[in-house]
Design brief:
The structure is a single chain. The chain is an alpha/beta fold. The chain has a single domain, classed as Peptidyl-tRNA hydrolase (Rossmann fold). It is built from six helices and seven strands; from the N terminus they run E-H-E-E-E-H-E-E-H-E-H-H-H. The protein has a seven-stranded mixed beta sheet with strand order 2-3-4-1-5-7-6, sandwiched between helices. Helix 5 runs antiparallel to helix 6 (about 185-195). The longest helix is centred in the C-terminal third of the chain and has 24 residues, at about 160-185. The model is unreliable at about 1-5 (pLDDT under 50).
Length: about 200
């Protein structure tokens, strides 16, 4: 691919560690990373690349050499582990793909982009600060805005509603497909196929 270098892709799913947060909206990035690990027939293990602050899977995905990462820090400190993994594998920000939940997209919406602001997302804020660049790729998984006057901070830490869970597996699968397309086809082609 012309726009990217020859090193490995680092794909980081954002979320909060531990069973308490496992099925929450804020952990959509972890859910996608788990599915990608299944596709790679790998399992996450703590690795020295992150100084012990992330679980990773190394292998091939869509024919390309990739490193999947799930930071073990909480969401607002996830940039440090992502930076450590990217540095260890010599991946420039342009070859880092961050998968995260997105309040500003309706549930199930998907948007691929490079760069931009953090939109109040603490995981993105931390990642941008740690990488020293906004020029990483983002795969934004729509979780929609909270109903009524519910605090967004509470909303993202709640589990998906029963009606949402009916579609969740399909939507996570589609998001994982978008990550693969981003690597194999490039940003513009993947946007044309997956942006909603």
């Amino acid at each position: 691919m012309a726009e990217l270098g020859d090193g490995r892709f680092v794909i980081a799913g954002l979320g909060n560690p531990g069973p308490k947060y496992e099925r929450t909206r804020h952990n959509a990035g972890f859910m996608v990373a788990d599915l990608l690990a299944e596709r790679m027939r790998g399992s996450f293990k703590v690795h020295k690349a992150s100084g012990g602050r992330a679980e990773i899977v190394e292998g091939r995905l869509a024919g390309l050499s990739v490193v999947l990462a799930k930071p073990l820090s909480y969401m607002n400190e996830s940039g440090g582990p992502i930076h450590s993994v990217a540095r260890f594998y010599k991946a420039p920000p342009e070859q880092v793909i961050v998968v995260h939940d997105e309040l500003d997209l309706p549930y199930g919406g998907l948007r691929l982009k490079r760069g931009g602001g953090d939109g109040g997302h603490n995981g993105l804020k931390s990642t941008t600060s740690a990488l020293g660049s906004k020029e990483y790729l983002r795969v934004r998984f729509g979780i929609g805005r909270p109903p009524g006057r519910q605090d967004p901070a509470d909303y993202v830490l709640k589990e998906f509603a029963a009606v949402e869970r009916k579609e969740l597996e399909f939507l996570i699968d589609r998001c994982a497909d978008a990550v693969e397309a981003l690597m194999t086809q490039g940003l513009e082609a993947a946007q044309n196929t997956f942006n909603t």
